[in-house]
Amino acid sequence: MINGKLIEAFKYTKKAIDSRFHVAIRDFQEISYLYTIIGDIYYRFGQYKTALKYYKRAFYTLELYQSNRNNRYYMDIYEKIGRICYEYDQLTSARYYCSKARAISDISGEDESRPVNLYITMGLIECKDEHYYAALDYFGHAFEILTNKSYSVHPESKLLYNYIGYVYFKLGQTEIAMKNYQETLSMHSNCSNHPKLAQVHKNIGLIYEKDKHDYPLALLSYKRALELLPSTKHPHYILYKSMIITLELKLKNIS
């Protein structure tokens, strides 16, 4: 169901872009924004290379309209490219693009909801680089904005608990981590089959396996994570599959 909606969103957005090119006066800023939406759809499917292609296309399209590099739309694109670099473990490049986005954010200060994604991406970068307290600091900034301004509809608001939970897991505070994971799941109670919850179930499985040594529950969590991925081509598919196989072998040896 979720995948079908994403495919329909892609078709609708692509059609919207095509129609914008067949008018006398083209709004390149709007076309650029639509390209980022397509990039986001590919990102959700784990097709990071294609997502990056559309983010770059959004950037070059925006250049046709907006020469002011401090425009907030540039900030969004830089952050999205930074997230792709993060996915490819290119942390130096990820920091570079996020720093460009943050510079624009510091100058504009128009809409406090916009830096939420940026703070989250910067937090993810620091977490992957094992700077866990720096990660918590960035996630804290995002959480403060979401809480104080009541941006409950922000797409990242529900997943933020998962990111925070994983940092606490890496710090060895698994009880706090589990509470955050459970909070993420409870906030998605009306869409429990959403692909983005795959990572949450994987993280819960890590606690069951590494901390509680409850291997059957860990295995159930890993299998749930695998089945939630949007396709077998998703870059996390091989990882989750290998985690399942490894744990199944461990259980077999124990028995």
UniProtKB/TrEMBL annotation:
Recorded superkingdom: Eukaryota
Record has Repeat as a keyword: yes
A Pfam entry, by short name: TPR_12
SUPFAM superfamilies hit by this protein: TPR-like
TPR repeat start and end residues: 32-65, 158-191
InterPro entries: TPR-like_helical_dom_sf, TPR_rpt
Keywords: Repeat, TPR repeat
Protein's name according to its UniProt entry: Tetratricopeptide repeat protein
